[in-house]
Amino acid sequence: MVCACTALMKTNCNVGATVARLTVGLVMLPHGLQKTLGVFGGLGFNATMELLTTKLGLPWLIALLVIMAESVGAVALIAGLMTRFCAASLAVVMAGAVLMAHGQNGFFMNWFGVQQGEGFEYHLLVIGACLSLVISGAGAFSVDRKLSANAGETSGSCCAR
Predict the structure, then answer these.
(1) How many C-beta atoms lie closer than 10 Å to residue 89's C-beta?
(2) Which one of 33, 106, 117, 126 is most buried, by most CB atoms within 10 A?
(3) CA–CA separation, 129 vs 3, rounded Å?
(4) What is the pLDDT of residues 48-63, one digit of tens each?
């Protein structure tokens, strides 16, 4: 019997999944750093928690999990660690952002500053990429692949373990 953790990490050496994983991780990390450290014009941890809990009305724990998904989750995606879990978490965060904040602004991003806020096209791209990672796993060059290979659960032999 395979433990649930090993099943979550099972992956093959799909380089397309690697590209998707690195892209999502590298794009999400600056958003997470805005929320945790206040860099790139972000609010930082305390102000982001205040915004999420008071303006958006999220429970404290959910607000914390959003920040963790975008920061720690992004780093884990870059490394390819617990990819399916982190990708699913980010997909849920992005769906929540559409439902709670961006959906009312329409589809398109606010390129010319004429909308009240940003639309949800970016969020849909992230959700799609994350769902592909939930299905495929981390792909080549990932911690998940190395750990699942050590557990004897890796399929395919097209790349080095």
Answers:
(1) 22
(2) 126
(3) 26
(4) 999 999 999 999 999 9
Q: What is the pLDDT of residues 110-122, one digit of tens each?
A: 888 887 888 899 9
The closest of 2, 9, 29 to 138, measured between CA atoms, is: 9
In the predicted model, what is the mean pLDDT of residues 74-90? 97
Contact criterion met (CB below 8 Å) for 127 and 15 = no
- Among 8, 12, 9, CA closest to 148: 9
- Rounding to the nearest 10 degrees, give the CA dihedral for residues 81, 5, 62, 73: 0
Q: Following CA atoms 6, 70, 95, 52 in sequence, which dihedral angle do they give, to the nearest 10 degrees?
A: 130
Start-end of H helices in 12-158: 15-36, 45-50, 60-79, 83-97, 121-136, 143-150
- Record the tokens describing residue 79, joined without a space: 């490394």
pLDDT tens readout for residues 99-142? 998 988 888 888 888 878 888 999 999 999 999 999 999 999 99
Q: Which of 87, 46, 49 is nearest to 65 (CA)?
A: 49
